[in-house]
Every structure is written in C-alpha cells, then in structure tokens.
Amino acid sequence: QTYAPKLILLDISDISCIRDVAREILNCYGCVDILINNASMKVKGAVQSISLELDKKIMDANYFGPITLTKAILPNMISRRTGQIVLINSIQGKIGIPFRAAYAASKHAAVGFFDCLRAEMEEFDISVSTVNPTFICSYHRPPAPGNWEASIWK
Known about the structure:
Belongs to the short-chain dehydrogenases/reductases (SDR) family. By secondary structure, the chain is of the alpha/beta class.
C-alpha cells in the first residue's frame, strides 16, 4: 500500500512533545516499520566553558530524544513482532576527543542504550542497528558573542 507523505515537525530535544508526535504518526499510519533516529546536536568547547544547561540540551537531543521516540514506537513493533530501529550515531560514541565532551557523552549513552535494546528485542524479531560514522561536514552558524545556542552544530 502507498501512503501520501505527511510532514510532522519535531524538535527532538523537546522531550515533552515526542510522545504526542509518535501517537500522531501511529494514528495516521497504524504502524512504523522502520524508525531511523538521525537527529543530532553538537557543540565544540572546553569542558569548563560549556554550561550545564547546554550539556543537558545536548543530552536531551542526542540521548533522551531518540530513546523517548523509540520507546513511544516500540510497543507497536512488539505487538506486531516486527520492525527495525536504526540509530545514526557517531564514532564519538566509541571514542572521545578534546572539546567535544558533552557530545561524546551523549553519543556514548545512546550506544549503551541501543546495544541493550538490541539484545532485548531479539525475541520479538525486531532489528536494532547502530551506525557510527566518522566525522562528517555539518551545517554550522558562526556564533554571535554571548549566544551559546548559535555555537550548536545541527
């Protein structure tokens, strides 16, 4: 069956709206066969110069966002005993490099979660994959002075 595309906007770092978006998707299509978690935020800076607020925002976007969306879609996949979940992560989920502590920490956490999920979903015939590409060129806005949000890579 062919479905008309539907655009649904989602800020993956806004955890409070993810369940509603997942419900909207399931109500529209009835199921999700393949979930690809491919949203990310990163920031470059020394540990002492990155605020705890920004650390939390990075963790929300790169860890809590994907796991919240996955947990919202998962019961439907389990009930159908089929599905595929993919996390597009980063090589920094395996190794850390200087000036990327918040990003690397969030990516390490995501790898750990999805590795555990993979083992748990085997009995339900749900495939869980993690892709950890090396460094990629991302869009970047030069930051204005005092504007930490502009220093985020999206």
